[in-house]
Amino acid sequence: MLNPPRVLPVRGRTVTAVTGPLLVLDARLEGHATFLTGTLTLDGHDIPVRITTLDDSTTLQPTQPLPDGLPEQ
Questions:
Q1: E strand residue ranges, 1-73
Q2: Overall average pLDDT of the 37-51 stretch
Q3: In the chain, which residue ranges form alpha helices assigned H by DSSP?
Q4: Sheet strands side by side (includes 20-25)
Q5: Most buried residue, 22, 32, 41, 73, by CB count within 10 Å?
């Protein structure tokens, strides 16, 4: 039997990168596996993301184009 997905509330901001928009979290994820994929639910949209934690920050990189009109924070 599969485990249900874990819900983890996060806060952050959008920044522009060469690879596309990055969602930089306000706090580094501690104790969670990274270099994985997940789903960010934002403003009623489910956005597939790649989760990366390096040094003191965690970023979420959308793997599909973002919907129009999303908040920057």
A1: 12-17, 20-25, 36-42, 45-54, 57-62
A2: 90
A3: none
A4: 12-17, 20-25, 57-62, 45-54, 36-42
A5: 22
- Tell me the backbone φ, ψ of residue 13, rounded to 5 degrees: -140, 160
Is residue 13 within 8 A of residue 73, CB to CB? The reply is yes
Per-residue model confidence (pLDDT) at position 60: 92
pLDDT, one tens digit per residue, over 7-35 is 888 899 888 889 888 889 999 887 766 67
pLDDT over threshold 90, residue 68: no
**CA separation for the pair 60, 35 (Å, rounded):** 10
